[in-house]
Amino acid sequence: MTFNSVSSSTRQIAVSDKTTTLLFDHDGTLIDSESVHFDLWKDILLAYDIELSEGFYCEVMAGIPVKQNAVDLVEHFNIDVAPQVLAEQKHKSISDYLDKQAFPLMPFAKETIEHCAHKGYTIGIVTGGSKKSVEKTLSHYGLGNFISCVVAVEDVEHSKPAPDCYTLAMDKLEKIPGECVAIEDTQTGMTAALAANIACVVIPTDLSKYHDLSGATARYTSLKDWVGSEFSV
Questions:
Q1: CA 91/CA 137 separation, integer angstroms
Q2: Mean pLDDT of 82-108
Q3: Is the model's pTM score more than 0.90?
Q4: CB atoms < 10 A from the CB of 142, how many?
């Protein structure tokens, strides 16, 4: 595979010679799912006569776990329904989607995972999404053998932006923060990684490019850009 290297002289580098472990977010980082999540939420809210805008989704919902999405929607739109009901509807819609197909991968996601594994890094997935979604990705695209740990929303009481998911991943892998680098696409994910004292690479999507990502250790335009810049290839 070919990665076009970009000069690192003008960039902060996250991966160092102390790095042993790469912890990837899932939605928006490895899989191109945010537009699907947006469409599913739109369909759910139409039943309540609410038209969800892309702007609201980008600013308030992208990268946030479903449980908090539901709370924010009920409060903002004054919907006469319990947040738990909305969350259950969303979980069912995602489950139905995954019964039929996997989410498409982000460009160069498979090549990135394979490349990092061949470089000898331990690889984990740390997501605010469901374990079913990750398992579907790994099985459908043949990536399971490269992944040493998965932490999903079901595994922690407090998901992103809390650091718990990253702390649990490090505990499972017997790693310390200085050995790890997180790869995220949203402010919420970045906040979780930094709160766990983990260096964080951000690769924003169109839905998260206006998030405040100024706290990131490094920022890149794509997975290909990141790998070509931070790794000797």
A1: 17
A2: 95
A3: no
A4: 10
